[in-house]
Amino acid sequence: MYDVKWIRDNAIEFDKGLQRRGLEPLSTQILELDNERKRIIHELQVAQERRNSVSKDIGQAMAAKNTTKADALKAEVAQLKDVMAQAEPEQVRIDKELHELLSATPNVPKSDVPEGADEHGNVLKSEFGTKPEIAAPKHHYELGEALGMLDFESASRMSGARFVVIKGQLARLERAIGQFMLDLHISEHGYTEVNPPLLVRDHAMFGTAQLPKFRDDQFSVEAGRDNQGDSHLQHWLIPTAEVPLTNLVREQILAESELPLRFTALTPCFRAEAGSAGRDTRGMLRQHQFNKVELVSITTPEQSSGEHERMLGCAEKVLQKLGLCYRVMTLCTGDMGFASQKTYDIEVWMPGQDTYREISSCSVCGDFQAQRMKTRFKNKAGKNEFVHTLNGSGVAVGRALIAVMENYQNADGSITVPDILLPYMGGITRIARV
User: What does the pLDDT look like over 272-305, one tens digit per residue?
Assistant: First the structure.
């Protein structure tokens, strides 16, 4: 979320950034609203000051038994009340309109983000590994169903489409993947493990920009209904641990010496996938519920670009240790997320689909989320500045499971366990039908 003062001082840069995202310039509309807001606030202040002054004069006139003057002053107070009664609702209306406009305005991309309208404008940054040679590779869902360890039918009976029941050795493999990632980021990459709430309130979702724009993509939970059946307690199921991890520092003033802060969590994530009708309906690629290891960093402005590259390297290390082939794409202006200034996507090779699929996104958000959360740090000069926030998947556990299944599949339908996961598998080296 952008500060109006920054927009006023950087109107050309702001509008150019929006145009790079394919949006119309907004600085004129925003500044006109802000000017009107300031005019009304000034009008109210002048009226209030005059009302206070006149009220004192009324007392003096009454004490002097000057009823004529007192009546005239009372009439002026009544007129001032009318002026204020008309101006106050107008201020509320403009405040709301300005807030809604700013809340719905995306972050401005960095200057080095490539131009493009959609995913076709993304630019290859790097590649790692060699695609495995597999004769007639199967999809993960074919492998899992043949093993009797992926059960979409039972999940559908319980919960509907886009859910799955994972069983037996495959369930253990998924658990092993998540535990391996978490251990790696804690022991080698210096992240602090967090076990956060899975339910959050509106202000937390607003802080990381899931609300209001992406309301339809979220699952809401209501509880505690009163006698009239109205809910007085609403939460949101987290779409990603980015929400609670980033909000750990909301409404705080941090010391510069504390930064960077690095948090990680392995949590279930919940997404309505409202805009994904007809996409990836087979298998586990796009689920309403999935597990993910999240990485979040809180930094100074000077640290954030370097931290972005570091975070990308942490996510890459997961796939390297799993022995998976992948590529890194720099997202173009038309494909990057709402809160992002710059995003790298890691796409892992999926033999069953004969294509690369996203398994991680690492984004630097500048102070966009910090302004929404009111999170600052005190710099060396003693001045309060907004922090910068970053988030990345480190990585999506479900998609990593898919990648392991497809890349490590054998001709007999079994799945070889990658060496890095063996310590978590209790002696199981190959997933096979029992």
Answer: 986 666 677 789 999 999 999 999 999 999 999 9
Q: Which long-range contacts (CB under 8 A, 24 or more apart) does 51-60 make?
A: 51/77, 51/80, 51/81, 51/84, 54/80
Q: Between β-strands 415-416 and 430-431, what pairing exists: parallel, antiparallel or unpaired? A: antiparallel
At which residue do the structure tokens 């509309």 appear? 29
Question: What does the DSSP assignment read for 72-108?
Answer: HHHHHHHHHHHHHHHHHHHHHHHHHHHHHHHHTPPPP
Q: Where is pLDDT greater, at 231 or 61?
A: 61
Q: Reduced to 3 states, what is the DSSP secondary structure of residue 142?
A: helix
Burial 323-339 (b: 16+ CB within 10 A, else e): ebbbbbbbbbbbbbbeb
Comparing C-alpha atoms, which of 374, 289, 379, 388 is closest to residue 339?
388
Per-residue tokens: 50: 């005059």
Tokens (6 digits) for 278 = 């007809």
Q: Are 287 and 141 in contact (CB under 8 A)?
A: no
Please say if the pLDDT value at position 390 is more than 80: yes
Residue type, 393: S
Q: How many CB atoms lie within 10 A of CB 290?
A: 21
**Hey, how many other C-beta atoms are within 10 angstroms of the C-beta on 9?**
10
* Sign of the Cα pseudo-torsion (217, 202, 208, 291, in order): negative
